[in-house]
Structures are given as structure tokens and as C-alpha cells.
């Protein structure tokens, strides 16, 4: 099909302006949210689609949402079929079986009309602090159906032609425990989408519809060409990977498995999940939209970091996921943990597969999310709070030429989610933070070391706190894997010390009773190493020891680097190091 002509400068200017609009929408959400889930953790994505529903530009603050948002908008478009849409409409949706990922991630979409025609959509998608149900922060590991997880919202209008739809607002807010947070953050998302609409109309007034349409077509074609070229560099073939979860929250002795075959055929790439386990009884099931999003995320992290993520760059990628499996569940299976726990397992299976095809571009396993979610009443404010504990982040996996990032995971955010500032943490929640620092010896040893986890200790200062743990990584088979001789990351530690000094381990994917005065103690998981640890230069090992990332004992044991203290300095014993490394080589 012939594309409208557009000069390269106009393509660059208009496409970059559309991307900038999504960043501006994101800044509005950061500055106007009531919940630290948006303002601190940045658990949202903003996007602009054209009138055909094609993703044109987005800013994925949380990468796990980057590929799910097109499915959510498609469900909205299917609901309205281009009819009954007017300027001033604002549509809400969150149903995981209508194009969304899990219930807490709420989509807000605003159709943009120009001279009477629907030409764009301004869309935000973010994790709401509360969507009802029996869980904490939306997470209910005892749920065996989606109805036990919270409110299912099919596409509906929160505003109709600019008119506030009080009945729907009252219905939503009556069914959530944290009304002031949800109401504020819904308006936050709506405000960002409204600014997106205004900014797109300003662009059209400046450049005209014909120029904008031509630039978009050229931009989509260029990004598709870039992605196809990146795929073509991968050798043709079929590459297999497998990964596991600790449990599903209901059947605690089962470790559900995900299996993928990555098929590369010239300029197209297919993720085939045939062989993955059936959907589970518990909340780790992944809707297709979430599975597709993780596939995009995992692939772009290896071969497309510089390629814009839009309709064009996603077109050469195919996903095959058997219906009724853990990666394409049937209703009414619960799904809330899919964006955290199952996301990590899907991405890891893909990276293990790609390690055979493109070893220098794939990466070792990231420290999995293994931490509490909490909610309750803050006695200082008298208001409910919801905390997702994004501070409990592990380290990322290493890759060829680069150590993993410290305290940056899990895979679902890939560094996009900020750890809550300690002062904000104490202001927003009824907690007193005692310790917050990088955890030595948690990153997997390697020629390139895995990123380290963190140590956190905080005390509960409210008699009204509910807690649920959500995560994975407690089993040997689910810890962050190393590649090409690299060692796995550490196993996480998650416990509570009561006022009587007794320590108890927090069970994974279960509700836990927490009392005022209890102290949480967590050590998050480190990322996997990459390459033979004995190939790491002694100087870099020494620097890790000096910086408190690796102990002298681990330097000798894992890296074969013998160090000694001379006054305030740590120096390399080069003769002893050479002998240590030579002895292993001979063995």
C-alpha cells in the first residue's frame, strides 16, 4: 500500500512531539496523584493511539504494561464500535478478560475528535490502590475466581460528553475501602488523558491533519522496518526456555511451569507457549494481554532498546498461547499476581531461550519480587493507606559487558519503578524505617556480577495493618539464574520480629497477621551473574569488596581473588590469587 508522502524532518518532529505528549501526561500523573503508587513508584503507562486504534507513542514507566495497553483500547473500541462516542467522553475499564492485565490496572481512555472526526485516543493505564475484594492492595492469594479479587469493570463512561456520571462513580467508590485514594487517582488519570487530548489538538492545529497522518504512517513503517532488521540478525531457528513459579497461593506444593519456544524466521519472531502448564487455581494466571506484553518487554530488552514501541515495531512479533493455560487463562480464573510473579517467569523463559541464539544480548535472571503488600489505617492522619512496598526490590541480572543494576528489579518494572523515598515512606505510611542499604553477597558471581538486593527493616506503628505477601524466588529453581558460568543470585529473606523478640518467617503468597510493634526484616534477592567468575578482573573484585557489595570471603570463594587488609586499605595478594585460580583450572 502506498504511504502518503512526508519529509523526514516532519516525521521526526511530529513523532517526537507525540512521544513528548505521553511524557507530559506522565508528569501530570506524578504531580497530581494521591497515592505513592503513582507519585513515587510510577506504576502506570501513558499512550497516544490513532483513530484506528494503533499505538503511536507511549511512555512505559512500568514496562510490564507497555504491550497490554493496545489490548485494553481494542476492547473499548469493540464495545463502542465507533458509535456513541463524543467529545468529552471518558471511558474506564479493567476486566482482565476484556483486554486488560489484572484488576488493579485501570485503563482510562479519552477519544480525541478533530473537526468532527475521531482521530486519536489519549490513554492512561495505572495500578489503583484498591479495587475492592478481600485482598490487600488488590492481591488476594486465596482467590480462586476473579470475582474474589475485586470489581470487574467492562468499558463504561465515567464522563459522557463532559458530564460526570455520578451513578457509576458512586458504585465504584462505594465498593472500595480506600475511597479517597481511588477517587483522587482516577481523576489523576483522567486529567492526564485530558491534557493528552489538548496537546494532540494543538499539534493538529499547528501542522494539520494531512501532515500528521502522513508522518504517522511513515513513522509506523520505519519502526516496523527497524524491528524486522533487528529480528533478522538473530539466527533462524527454534530456541527453548523453561521457568517456574514457587506456587499459586492455593496449591502450595506445586511449582507451575512456563515453557516457550522462540521461533525465528527471517524478519518475524514467534513466541510459542505450547507445553506450558494449565491455568492454576490461584492468582498467578496470566491473561493473554499480560503474556503478550511480557513477550514484547523481554524481547525489546535484548534487541530493541533503541526502537520505539508502537504498532509498527510490534507487528513482526507473534504470540501463540494455548487457551486454558497459565499464559492464556479462561475466565473466571484469578489473575492478580500475573503482572509480578508470572511476568518474571515468562521473561526468564524467553531470556533462557534467547541465550542460545544471541548469547551476548540476553541477560541473566533478575531478583524476583518477594515482599509484602500492606494496607490499613494511618493513626497520624486517620485515613486508610495502601503500600505496595516497592522499596523491596532485588538486583537485575548481568549481561555480557555489564554488571547487573543494584536494587532495581523486579522484571515487571526493569528499573522504571522508583523506590519510595525513606522520608515519604514514613510520612505516607505508619512505619518507622530503621535500616535500608544494599545487601552484600546477594548478587550472583560472574565475570559480570549480578546486581545486589537490599536490606530493609521497619517497625509497624499502627494497630490496624493488613498484610499479604506476594512473590516468588524462594526455591532453588526460582532464584535468579546465572548464564555461561555465572552463579545464581541469593535466596530472599522475609520475616517479622515480634515485640517479644520472637522471629517468624513470612509465608509466600499468603495473608499474615501483623501487630503494632512488629518489625519487618527483608533481604531482597540479587540478580544472576554472567560468565565465569574467575574471569572477573581482581581489581573489579577488590572494588566490589571496598564498596561493600562482596565480602572478602566471597571474593576468595567465588572469584578466586585473595585480599588482605593493610591498615585502612584492602589490597590484592596477586601471588595467592594466581595460585587459587590456577588450582581450580587444573582441577
SSE inventory with pairings:
Elements: H1 8-32, H2 36-39, E1 44-50, E2 55-60, H3 69-80, E3 90-93, E4 105-114, E5 117-127, E6 156-160, E7 163-164, H4 166-174, H5 179-207, H6 209-232, E8 237-244, E9 257-265, E10 268-272, H7 288-303, H8 311-314, E11 317-320, H9 341-357, E12 370-378, E13 383-387, H10 422-428, E14 431-438, E15 454-460, E16 465-471, E17 493-497, E18 503-505, E19 511-513, E20 519-523, H11 538-546, H12 552-559, E21 563-566, E22 569-572, H13 574-586
Helix pairs in contact: 1-5, 1-6, 5-6, 7-9
- Strands side by side in the biggest sheet: 2-1-5-4-3-6-7
Q: Which class do the helix and strand fractions yield?
A: alpha+beta
Which term fits the overall shape? globular
The total number of structural domains is 3
Quickly count the helices. 13
CA-to-CA gap between the ends? 64 Å
List low-confidence stretches: none
Tell me the strand percentage band: 15-25%
What is the alpha-carbon Rg in Å?
24 Å
Average pLDDT for all residues: 95
Helix fraction, binned, reads 25-40%
Total strands: the figure is 22
Largest sheet: 7 strands, antiparallel
Amino acid at each position: 500500500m502506498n504511504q502518503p508522502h512526508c519529509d523526514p524532518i516532519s516525521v521526526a518532529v511530529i513523532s517526537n512531539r507525540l512521544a513528548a505528549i505521553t511524557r507530559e501526561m506522565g508528569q501530570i500523573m506524578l504531580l497530581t496523584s494521591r497515592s505513592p503508587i503513582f507519585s513515587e513508584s510510577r506504576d502506570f503507562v501513558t499512550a497516544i493511539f490513532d483513530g484506528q486504534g494503533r499505538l503511536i507513542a507511549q511512555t512505559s514507566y512500568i514496562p510490564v504494561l507497555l504491550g497490554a495497553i493496545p489490548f485494553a483500547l481494542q476492547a473499548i473500541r469493540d464495545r463502542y464500535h465507533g458509535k456513541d462516542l463524543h467529545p468529552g467522553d471518558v471511558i474506564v475499564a479493567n476486566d482482565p478478560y476484556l483486554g486488560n492485565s489484572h484488576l488493579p490496572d485501570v485503563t482510562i481512555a479519552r477519544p480525541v475528535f478533530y473537526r468532527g472526526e475521531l482521530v486519536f485516543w489519549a490513554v492512561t493505564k495505572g495500578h489503583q490502590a484498591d479495587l475492592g475484594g478481600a485482598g490487600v492492595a488488590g492481591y488476594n492469594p486465596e482467590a480462586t475466581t476473579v470475582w474474589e479479587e475485586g470489581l470487574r469493570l467492562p468499558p463504561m463512561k465515567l464522563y459522557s460528553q463532559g458530564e460526570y456520571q455520578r451513578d457509576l462513580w458512586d458504585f465504584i467508590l462505594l465498593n472500595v475501602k480506600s475511597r479517597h485514594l481511588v477517587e483522587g487517582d482516577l481523576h489523576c488519570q483522567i486529567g492526564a488523558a485530558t491534557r493528552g487530548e489538548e496537546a494532540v489538538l494543538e499539534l493538529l492545529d499547528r501542522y494539520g491533519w494531512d501532515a500528521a497522518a502522513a508522518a504517522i504512517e511513515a513513522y509506523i513503517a520505519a519502526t516496523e522496518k527497524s524491528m524486522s532488521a533487528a529480528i533478522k540478525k538473530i539466527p533462524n531457528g527454534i530456541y527453548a526456555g523453561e521457568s517456574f513459579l514457587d506456587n499459586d497461593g492455593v496449591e502450595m506444593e506445586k511449582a507451575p511451569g512456563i515453557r516457550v519456544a522462540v521461533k525465528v524466521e527471517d524478519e518475524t519472531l514467534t513466541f510459542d507457549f505450547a507445553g506450558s502448564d494449565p491455568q492454576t487455581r490461584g492468582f498467578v494466571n496470566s491473561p493473554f494481554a499480560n503474556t503478550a506484553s511480557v513477550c514484547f518487554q523481554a524481547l525489546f530488552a535484548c534487541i530493541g532498546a533503541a526502537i520505539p514501541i508502537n504498532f509498527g515495531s510490534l507487528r513482526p512479533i507473534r504470540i501463540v498461547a494455548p487457551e486454558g493455560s497459565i499464559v492464556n487463562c479462561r475466565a473466571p480464573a484469578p489473575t492478580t499476581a500475573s503482572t509480578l510473579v508470572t511476568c518474571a517467569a515468562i521473561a526468564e523463559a524467553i531470556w533462557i531461550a534467547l541465550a542460545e541464539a544471541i548469547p551476548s544480548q540476553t541477560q541473566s535472571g533478575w531478583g524476583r519480587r518477594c515482599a509484602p503488600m500492606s494496607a490499613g489505617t494511618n493513626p497520624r492522619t486517620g485515613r486508610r493507606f495502601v503500600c505496595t512496598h516497592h522499596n523491596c526490590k532485588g538486583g537485575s541480572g548481568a549481561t555480557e559487558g555489564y554488571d547487573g543494576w543494584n536494587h532495581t528489579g523486579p522484571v515487571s518494572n526493569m528499573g522504571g519503578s522508583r523506590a519510595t523515598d525513606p522520608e515519604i515512606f514514613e510520612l505516607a505510611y505508619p512505619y518507622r524505617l530503621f535500616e535500608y542499604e544494599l545487601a552484600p553477597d546477594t548478587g550472583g558471581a560472574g565475570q559480570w556480577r549480578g546486581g545486589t538486593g537490599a536490606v530493609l527493616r521497619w517497625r509497624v506503628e499502627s494497630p490496624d495493618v493488613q498484610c499479604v505477601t506476594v512473590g516468588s524466588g524462594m526455591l532453588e529453581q526460582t532464584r535468579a539464574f546465572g548464564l555461561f558460568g555465572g552463579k545464581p543470585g541469593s535466596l530472599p529473606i522475609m520475616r517479622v520480629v515480634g515485640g517479644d523478640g520472637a522471629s517468624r518467617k513470612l509465608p509466600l503468597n499468603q495473608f499474615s497477621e501483623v501487630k503494632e510493634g512488629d518489625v519487618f526484616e527483608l533481604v531482597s534477592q540479587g540478580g544472576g551473574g554472567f560468565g565465569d567468575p574467575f574471569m572477573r578482573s581482581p581489581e573489579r573484585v577488590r572494588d566490589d569488596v571496598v564498596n561493600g557489595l562482596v565480602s572478602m570471603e566471597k571474593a576468595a570463594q567465588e572469584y578466586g581473588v585473595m585480599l588482605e587488609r593493610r591498615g585502612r586499605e584492602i589490597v590484592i595478594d596477586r601471588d595467592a590469587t594466581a595460585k587459587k585460580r590456577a588450582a581450580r583450572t587444573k582441577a
